[in-house]
Amino acid sequence: MTKINISAFTPTDVEIKEISNTQAEVSAYPFQEGFAITLAHPLRRLLLNSTVGYAPIGIKIDGVTHEFDSIRGMLEDVSLFIINLKNIRFKVLSDEPQVVVDYSFSGPKEITGKDLNSEEIEVVSEEKYLATINEDSDLKFSIILQKGIGYTPSEDIRDEITTGYIALDAFFTPVRKAIYEIENILVEDNPNFEKIIFKIETDGQISPIDAFKNSLEAMHNQMSVFDEVLNIEKLAKEESASATIELKKLMMGIEELNLSARSFNCLEKALVKHIGELALMDDSKLKEIKNLGKKSLDEIKEKMEEIGFPIGGEIDRDIENLLLEKLEDQKGRK
Question: By residue range, what is the domain housing residue 261?
């Protein structure tokens, strides 16, 4: 007989393999057939689009007014200099969302990423080439490094930076590669369970494991918009359960109040059988019961107060309607 599932199988195993400071593999299994791709694809997109990194968003170069200008004594023109700068990856050593770093070089010199290290930043691609200046050249420039995710074109940055800076296209993501493979694995006698293997590579700003953690956090944050739906359903269930308990209390016999014989007999003679009938009365209605003296009246009011249904108190409208239906049904059976 084929086994019938009543819920999706929950994976139980995770394996983490750190290949280097910038490469890692994360595996999870076993997934029920079809569930691996459901999870893997959005996680890959989040790895590429939501992992936080730093990128230069603006540059100011002494003596330069636009990106198509040139600099005396520098081998590269400004546009090539900017392209080379974009290939250099930075790690900001503080939690600041934005820092400005100033540089000054005198030739002759070949400038690479390692020359851009400072107290505020660490260059994670030190070998990358930036520019070459001759002995007659002095190069002074400032860059704005900004924290962000994904990609932002320079058109969206121009209004955000200080006058005098050239806006740059910003490639923030520190994730160079995020791919996944799905393999079939055997669980008991079923060969159709699945295993996800994520292969992640970063540029060094962040470890691949931290990038993966960030993507999981981003997925949780995106999914949390539906928490309200779950909370509403949970609240509705709790309210329903609470209403059921209250109704059961109200339908209990008056003997559950443990009244004195005189008080009980007065209520019984008045055909008051259920606690709910008392809960529906106000003080004046209760006083109309024949032969119910002040002492018995006070006793009944005290007992009803103790169980949470004071005489003359308010009852939820829905519970009251259900109570009236139940009491009417009880009378109909008699």
Answer: 251-333
